[in-house]
Structure formats: structure tokens, C-alpha cells
Amino acid sequence: MPRVKSLGSLEQKVLEFLWQHGPATGETVRSALDTGRPLTDSTIRTVLRRLESKQYVNHRLEGRQFLYASLRQPRKVAADAVRDILKRFCRGSLEELLAGMVDHHVVKASELRRLTEKIEAQERQERKP
After folding, report:
1. What is the reported pTM?
2. 3-state secondary structure of 98
């Protein structure tokens, strides 16, 4: 599996906008983003081109404007990022990642217990004839 291409903070904001609002022009994205500083058209075009080269978005021509849309859903992007973290930092072990998250108070053991219960309930449901 190829390594996940990471996102810069502005790339992340643009992608989140597209997830929330659907396809949009570069101008729509630029005017909607509140980054604490003014964004130029060329900055947004550069970010959208980078996202396109990383295969997070694509575009189509609508009239005389490019309309950009997300290619991947948020959960898929998150799953790919976690896979990359597992591979790079946890020797591929989900258990090691989760134990570290409990140790460092990122996730509570009680949350993992509830998740385990959900998984077990789903497995019981799937085994029913």
C-alpha cells in the first residue's frame, strides 16, 4: 500500500469545506474559509492543485470555471492515516497503538470497553441464521 500523502493545515481546511458543502469553485472555497489571514486566488488554486495531485480532489469544467469535489470520504482518509501511523510507529500493531492512546490519556479504557461490546454485538448479529 502506498504511503499516505499528508495534508497541510490549509489543505485540510479546504478538504473539510468540500466535505461539508460539496463541489465548489476555487472562489467559493476562498471566500468561505476563515484562516485569520486573507487568501489570494492563486493560493487557493495552488492548494486545490496540490490536493488534486495527492488524489484527494478532482475537478470538472462547469461553464468557464473549475468545480472541485472530494474524491475520498472523511472516514477513508482517517482510516488511511491510521494505517500509516500503525505502519510507521507501531510495527503494524493496532493493540500497541490503542494501548499507547490509553497510556497517554487520548482514549479512556471505558471507551475501548464500549467499543469492544459493540464489536461483539455486531459479531453475534452476523452469526445469527
Report:
1. 0.76
2. helix
